[in-house]
Amino acid sequence: MEKRINKITFLVLAFFLGEFGIDRFMRGQIGLGILKLVTCGGLGIWQLVDFVIAITKISHYDEEFVFIDGQWER
Question: DSSP for 42-63?
């Protein structure tokens, strides 16, 4: 399954709601989203790591980027 997401929207939601797993839900990774929700973003560590990874990956895209089966498009 392919999901197109605006990069600004993704970064804002990942920053503010990342501890609730919203970034994983947007990617289509429901299981990891629930796990992240239950652990409060891995006590904030998992949220921070995912946010830093998102910033580095998103810099290669113009406006939108694509997740294919929950993975970053290459």
Answer: HHTHHHHHHHHHHHHHHTT-SS
- Written as six digits, the tokens of 58 are 């998103």
Q: How far apart are CA 12 and CA 64, in angstroms?
A: 14
What would the pLDDT profile of 15-24 be if each residue is shown by its tens digit? 999 899 998 8
DSSP label of 74: -
Cα end-to-end span (Å), the chain: 15
Tokens 């997740």 -> residue: 67
Average pLDDT over residues 41-46: 88
Our separate counts of H helices and E strands in the chain read 5, 3
DSSP state of 13: H
Distance CA 30, CA 13 (A): 16
Residue with token string 């797993």:
21
